[in-house]
């Protein structure tokens, strides 16, 4: 009986974290979810937000934008387009991301605009809590 | 008999060439290590991505609703050839081998009556293709300001390609780059990026998808293109440094051999000059 799942956070450039976690809270596209051992196999896309991991060494938090998470009974891999530790996510970094999102919002139409609007709102929310 | 002074100058010049090639070799070796590390670190992401997309593609692939990026436009009339090359030369056959492969493909496509468009990354490949195919260029990405290839660079290129695809500018996109095997071997590779192809090993896990499979796939396919480009750029980076390192190693060795040969010639002619002078002195003394 598994009491932990192998958590991996991967960005295109490198592997950010690989730990045995007891619970992982993921900002899923359709709402937050917590992956625990023996979770049903799930694949979900991410919305920008804060991902937190509980492991033997305590809780770690990451700011992630875009990508997806693959959850199985024993593993949880998060592939994020960009990811940084919460502590390293300075106001500057968030501002930069927000600026990009706003730029995208300006030019967008239709469905793309919805996506961009959502991204801006999400980033603003993160910015407010950070 | 060659002039002593000329020989000496020649030896000096080859020596300084050797210093330069030796320095370039060492720089390439240091850069190679970094490039290889970067390529290795990017591997987990690319592998996961391909695995998940492969699984998704299998379940969605046959339906009519499959996105165009996966199913294609239903035609293969217009081809986009994406050529990834380096910004700098002196890397042995690195750029030529990519261009050779791409050119063979372009000629084949043209012979078959297809339309070919070319997108280049890195100026060396562009320079080589310009001779025959300059009218087919649609876009060039200059990477000379990029010190370290990041995912952002790949995403920028991917976005350009995707928007072109969205506008119906081409049906099939294929990219050309060198895969890093080891320092002496780089394999020119062609990979079709649009429509996406997966070597599917069947994943038996049945997943819940949130949102639906189709939406996830639509979200992932563009990312997949960017990831493939990123992987290719990194492979190319490592290959470039590897190729340059072995090219410069050869050059250094050749320069060394040349110096040895020239030194022998130099010493012989110096001896000949001395012998000559001695003969002159002795015969002068005898004549008295």
Secondary-structure map:
The complex is a heterodimer of chains A (130) and B (288).
Chain A: E1 5-10, E2 15-28, E3 31-35, E4 42-45, E5 49-55, E6 58-71, E7 75-85, H1 91-107, H2 110-129
Parallel strand pairs in A: 1-7
Antiparallel strand pairs in A: 1-2, 2-3, 2-5, 4-6, 5-6, 6-7
Helix pairs in contact in A: 1-2
Chain B: H1 4-60, H2 68-71, E1 78-84, H3 94-111, E2 115-121, H4 123-133, E3 137-141, H5 151-166, E4 172-180, E5 186-194, E6 208-210, H6 213-287
Parallel strand pairs in B: 1-2, 1-4, 2-3
Antiparallel strand pairs in B: 4-5
Helix pairs in contact in B: 1-6, 3-4, 5-6
Report the biggest beta sheet of chain A as strand number plus sense, adding barrel if it closes. 5 strands, mixed, barrel
CATH topology of the largest domain in chain B: Pyruvate Kinase, Chain: A, domain 1
Structural class of chain A: alpha+beta
Placed side by side, the strands forming the largest sheet of chain B appear as: 3-2-1-4-5
Amino-to-carboxy terminus distance of chain B = 30 Å
Rg of chain A: 15 Å
- Tally of alpha and pi helices of chain A: 2
Weakly predicted, low-confidence segments of chain B? none
Instruction: Count up the domains of chain A.
Output: 2
Chain pair with largest interface = A-B, 26 and 28 residues
Q: How would you state the average pLDDT of chain A, rounded? A: 79
Query: How many domains is the backbone of chain B divided into?
Result: 2
Q: Which term fits the overall shape of chain A?
A: globular
Largest sheet of chain B: 5 strands, mixed
Could you please describe the fold and organization of this structure?
The complex is a heterodimer of chains A (130) and B (288). By secondary structure, chain A is of the alpha+beta class. Chain A is 28% helix and 47% strand. Chain A contains two helices and seven strands; from the N terminus they run E-E-E-E-E-E-E-H-H. Chain A has a five-stranded mixed barrel. Chain A is globular, with a radius of gyration of 15 Å. The mean pLDDT of chain A is 79. Chain B is an alpha/beta fold. Chain B folds into two domains: 4-21 and 248-287, Orthogonal Bundle (Helix Hairpins); 29-245, 3-Layer(aba) Sandwich (Pyruvate Kinase, Chain: A, domain 1). In chain B, 63% of the residues lie in helices and 14% in strands. Chain B has helices at residues 4-60, 68-71, 94-111, 123-133, 151-166, 213-287; strands spanning 78-84, 115-121, 137-141, 172-180, 186-194, 208-210. In chain B, strands 3-2-1-4-5 form a five-stranded mixed beta sheet, with helices on both faces. In chain B, a hairpin with a 5-residue loop joins strand 4 (172-180) and strand 5 (186-194). The mean pLDDT of chain B is 87. The interface between A and B is medium-sized, with 26 and 28 residues.
